[in-house]
Every structure is written in C-alpha cells, then in structure tokens.
Amino acid sequence: MALNVVILAAGQGKRMRSDLPKVLHPLAGKPLLSHVIDAARELGAQKICVVYGHGGERVREALDAPDLSWARQEPQLGTGHAVLQAIPEFAAVPPAPTLVLYGDVPLTRVSTLRRLIDAAGDDTLGLLTALLPDPHGYGRIVRVDGKVTRIVEQKDADDAERAIREINTGILVAPGEALARWLPQLGNRNAQGEYYLTDIVAMAVAEGMAVTTAHPDATWETEGVNSKVQLAQLERVHQRNVAEALMEAGVMLADPARIDVRGELICGRDVFIDVNCVFEGRVVLGDGVRINANCVIQDATVGAGSIIGPFARLRPGTELAEDVHIGNFVEVKNSFIAAHSKANHLAYIGDATIGSRVNVGAGTITCNYDGANKFRTIIEDDVFIGSDTQLVAPVTVGRGATLGAGTTLTENAPPDALTISRAKQMTIAGWKRPVKQKKA
Ligand code: UD1
Ligand code: CA
C-alpha cells in the first residue's frame, strides 16, 4: 500500500533555550528529525514532506536529501494549518493514505506505525491513541458507544471530557483525498485560536467514515522533546533499548545503564563491554572481543579476540585484525594493525600500517602531520619499537627491526637490525649543581 508522510517540525522549541533548532538536537548522535525521517523511509513512503517554520532554513540545509520535500509554514497557525502546507507536495504522486508524524517525537517504533497504517487501511481515519494515568495536557479521545466521535483539546474540554484517560498521541493516518478536502475547511474558533488537525476526526465521522485506533507498546514511543530534560530522558530510554538488544544478541555488558551507542554497533559472539564506553558511527567487534572501561570507539573494526582499553580511543578508519591489544591512553586513527600486535600504553598511531606480532612501546608516536599534509608510517611484521619513539612519516620500519628507546626515526629502518638515534650517555664526575647566592 502506497503511503505519504508529513512530518511537522515548524515549532520553535523555545523551551530548549538553544540557538540550535529543536529538531536538530541529537539523540544517540543523530538529529531528532532524522530519527523520524528514517522511520518514514523504513515504512517505504513514496513521498516524505517536512513542514518547517521560521528559522528552519538551517534544518533544511542540515538534512536535505533527494527523497525529501519541504513545505514552509509561516506563520504557524496550528497543526491543521501545518499539514495543509504539505498537501501540494503530494499532488504529483498517486493518492495514498497520509501519515502525520512529528519532528520532535523521535522514538516511535516502525512496527507501531505499521500497525496503525494496517488498521486504518486506505478508507478509514486511523488514530494512534494511548491510555495514560495522567492525561493532562493532551487532546482526549471522545467515544460514544465505543466509537470515536471527535477529539477535544485539554483547553477546550469540560470536566467530563478532562476525565477521559484515552489521549491523542498526535500521530494519525488519513486517506489522502479526504485529508486534502478536510484541511481547508478547518476553523480556528477554539480556546487557542488555532487550526486544529484533530478537528478532522469529527469531519470524518460526519461523512460516515470509520475511525480506527491503534496503540503504541510503550508510552515513550509517542513522547515528544520540549526541553533538555525530556531530551535526556528519551536518550536514556533509547540507550536502554539498544543495550537490551545487544544483550539479547549475546553481548555481555558490565552495566547496561553505562553504554552509549551513537550509531551502529555490530558484535560477534561472546563480546564483553565494560562500563562507560561510547560507540559512534559504524563499529564492528569480532568474536570474543573485550572492551575494557572508558573507551571511545568510532567507525572502527576490531578483530576477534582483541582487547581494547581501558581508556583507549579508536578513531575513524581503524582496522584491527585478530588478537590485537590496544591499552590505556592509546589513540589509533586511520590505521591497519595486523594480528597479534600490541600497543599497550600511551601511544598515538595515525595513518599507519602495522604488521603482525609488532610491539609498539609506551610513548610511541607516529608524526603523521607536517602542518600541511598527512603521511603514512609502515611498520612491517615482527618489529619491536622501543618506548618513547617518534616515527616521522613517511617512514618504513623493515621486518624484524628493533628501534631503540627514545629514537626519533626520520629515515627508513632496515629489517632485522637495531636502529637507534639517541645522544650517547655520559657521566661527569664531581659535577656540582649551581647554588643560589644569598643576599648579603
Ligand atoms: C497536539 C494535539 C493533541 C495531542 C498532542 C500530543 C492538535 C490540535 N492537538 O497538541 O491532541 O494530544 O499534540 O502531543 O493537534 N506544529 C507545527 N505548526 C503549528 C503548530 C504545531 O509544525 O502551527 C508542530 C509543533 O512543532 C509540534 C507539533 O506540531 O511538534 C505539535 O504541536 P503543539 O502545538 O505542541 O500541539 P499540542 O498542543 O501538544
Ligand atoms: Ca498548542
């Protein structure tokens, strides 16, 4: 069944107290609005239209894509007026049910939306409703003999209506042609002087169109973000969901409340992740990988049996083969490290290709940047790099070579030999430290 989606994102979001438009605030590293757009894409929408408002050009610039269309709502006269702005965008595609989503409601499950769309079909109005212990503030679902007759907003409701606990989540799906017919007929004679989208319910009933309802599995699915507090709450809900999915898939988490996944984390069997690790972008962890506490890992691949951290940072383009050890205060960027190699303490490995069974000593630094350009460091198999060594790229350390501690390597080091650059040690017997002259 074809589907159109309207995403309302014209609200200002004053309560965020931020120069960043509300819907660009990140949840799990991704703008709120992107979560909603991605859900619409997953539903296979033929057309997705984002309604944006004053100051929203930044939103459009940040998230524009070939499959999106944009409708500006200026001024903002209510949710019904907002959806009306999107209707011309759907003229070019075949008529289809139109789903209304909200740019600040990021966590609605696609399965829930599908349930709503399926329940509504192409000839009824479908509402996503929920039973809340405290329905204050929401539009209430008014039913007569079990059948929905209209929605009344909190500010327009009488006491009996305010006692209704079934609320309008705001998400609905309506037959496209009927929606285009109803929206221009909306009035604004209500407590807020707004064109309410919710008034289409009574219009549908007046036409004899059936109104169907579906419900989310969890209340957080339809919660919106109006403040930084609510943003943080939904972030935790999302991270908890991600943690549970990882554990269901067999990953062992030291504490599911202390992991942050801001992207895609793909794990093999028997992966262990200790507390306070952050995963960004696309991270792949092979079988038996152990991530110790306090690591930050972004767009990296970690081979089977490798041990990372504590306090390690793997940056984009890091690719580790099996049984690689990256220890505390080691940063790796855009580098490949082959099997059984180790960098266990205090090192920077950037733009390097490192062979198998290499030992990178504490304090080793690849000097990959001359202030203008980046260069590669190549370290072949079975190399031993002594502590506190600088490798000034481009430079190659030949197979089996040893670099003495404290070496600053500016020329290639030949294989199977010791290369060392260090001032010769000497001792001056009887040497005295200078003494400060006392004032007379
Ligand atoms: C709306 C519903 C209410 C429901 C509640 C759920 C209406 C009239 N009421 O009320 O039944 O219980 O959501 O949260 O629809 N927006 C625009 N342009 C506008 C007005 C709003 O884009 O002119 C967007 C806002 O950015 C926001 C969303 O629509 O994301 C909801 O608007 P808001 O005014 O907050 O609706 P509520 O009063 O919460
Ligand atoms: Ca309002």
What does this structure look like?
The chain is an alpha/beta fold. The chain folds into two domains: 4-222, Alpha-Beta Complex (Spore Coat Polysaccharide Biosynthesis Protein SpsA, Chain A); 228-419, 3 Solenoid (UDP N-Acetylglucosamine Acyltransferase, domain 1). Helices cover 17% and strands 32% of the residues. It is built from eight helices and 34 strands. Strand 2 (26-27) and strand 3 form a beta hairpin. The radius of gyration is 30 Å and the shape is elongated. The termini are far apart.
Number of helices: 8
Quickly name the level 1 CATH class of the largest domain: Alpha Beta
What's the shape?
A: elongated
What gap, in angstroms, lies between the N and C termini? 99 Å
Most strands sheet: 20 strands, parallel
In angstroms, what is the radius of gyration?
Answer: 30 Å
- Mean pLDDT score, rounded? 97
Indicate the low-confidence ranges by residue numbers: none
CATH topology of the largest domain: Spore Coat Polysaccharide Biosynthesis Protein SpsA, Chain A
- Based on the coordinates given, report the CATH architecture of the largest domain: Alpha-Beta Complex
CATH homologous superfamily of the largest domain - what is it? Spore Coat Polysaccharide Biosynthesis Protein SpsA, Chain A
The tally of beta strands, per DSSP, is: 34
What's the number of domains? 2
Portion in strands: 25-35%
| Cofactors and ligands | uridine-diphosphate-N-acetylglucosamine, calcium ion
- What structural class do helix, strand and pairing data support? alpha/beta
Q: What proportion of the residues is helical, as a percent range? A: 10-25%
